[in-house]
Amino acid sequence: MYLQRIKALLYAFLILWWPASVVQAEKNNAPNQTVPVISISGAIGPAVGDYVTKQIQLANQQPNVPALMITIDTPGGLVSSLRDINQTILASNIPILCLVHPQGARAASAGTFILYACHIAAMAPATTLGAATLVSIGGGGSPNQPQEKPQTPTAMEKKVLNDSIAYIRSLAQLRGRNAEWAESAVRDAATLSASEAKEKNVINLIADSPEQLLLLLDGLTIKVGDSQATLALSSANLEPRKPDWRNQFMSTITNPNIAYLLLIIGFYGLLLEFYSPGFGVAGVVGAICLLVATYAFQMLPVNYVGVGLIVLGLGLLVAESLVPSFGILGFGGVVAFVLGSIFLFDSDIPELRISMSLIYSIAFTSAAFVMFVLRRVLQLRKSQVVSGIEDLIGSDAVVENTFEQCGYVRVNGERWAAQGDEHYSAGEVVVIEDIEGLTLRIKKQQGG
């Protein structure tokens, strides 16, 4: 009887302990969930677009990734890169969480479109968004010059504006956010702070950090594609995803200043190779730089009139060094070079324009080179000839054999025919006063 009671107690203990141990084991063996974090900082260009789209596609293919977070701080960027990013966000099977972060950051222009495209839009305190008006290519003059009369937009500008308005309204309607303010952000360049954006239903949440955003979203049900998904993010780990070497290389060469320098180096490298053939180092470096610059230009908003002016300016500078025109070609080359450099990229974003200090530095260097060439040419024209037969005039010669009027003399080891008006003795030193064809005109030395 006593043994039966002990067995009953053991069976009861096993029945109560077994389910709890199984649940605990399942929790311990469950894989950790990871939320990748990618960062958009600075202008949105081809390199940023490639980095963001590939990371989103990679996250969709990996297990145990319940969501992906984008932290954003951008003044805007290229429309083509923006469209690529948003298409990838809209096609994502996992929620994309966008946070304007850190404090003081902004999601201006293209950043506003990305914020509207994401499943969750959040902002840190003291951040802003908006000013999504697209600027016409080519600009419209200096911003410091007031316009007396507003310019009537052209038909093309109206098409671009209306297309952008329709695009951002469609994103707002898809995510259930304020479509009227989205239109004013594009049409009137309206902006909002984080708290104002939350009040106007432009964003979903205000979060101080990515970690706080995960806690605020835990348990929230959102629409992803055609289905509803409940976010379970309380135990998820944030994993920053940095750009790989390829994205970093693309980001470097698509920097307008770097692409501009590569173009200049490539041109001068090939020019140096053509004028002083040698081991081919200058030619190889120039060809590589020129090809890399061409690759970068096809991803940037390049104005090919600017490229033409740069090539014309460099050509005129080279022509000045070869056929001196006393500064006319050189001055024209510097002017064409500076204008072409200014017109080279069509963008109102400073990060997508060439630094004016860089333009002036290269222009000044080129002008200094032209001035150096002109100075050397003038010095050579005024200096005495130090080579050729003209250099013999005024030098000494030694009479080979005694003669009168016509005979032969030796100059620097060479035998020359000579003519003179006097009698000359063998070994006598005479002075060359002129050259007539292959005959030297000689005279006796003074006091000889």
TrEMBL record:
It is a multi-pass membrane protein. It comes from the Bacteria. GO terms for cellular component: membrane. The keyword Transmembrane applies. Keywords: Membrane, Transmembrane, Transmembrane helix. Residues 257-375 form the NfeD integral membrane domain. Residues 35-210 form the NfeD1b N-terminal domain. It is found in: Membrane. The keyword Transmembrane applies. The chain crosses the membrane at residues 249-271, 278-296, 302-319, 326-345, 357-374. Residues 390-444 form the NfeD-like C-terminal domain. This is Nfed family protein. It comes from Vibrio orientalis CIP 102891 = ATCC 33934.
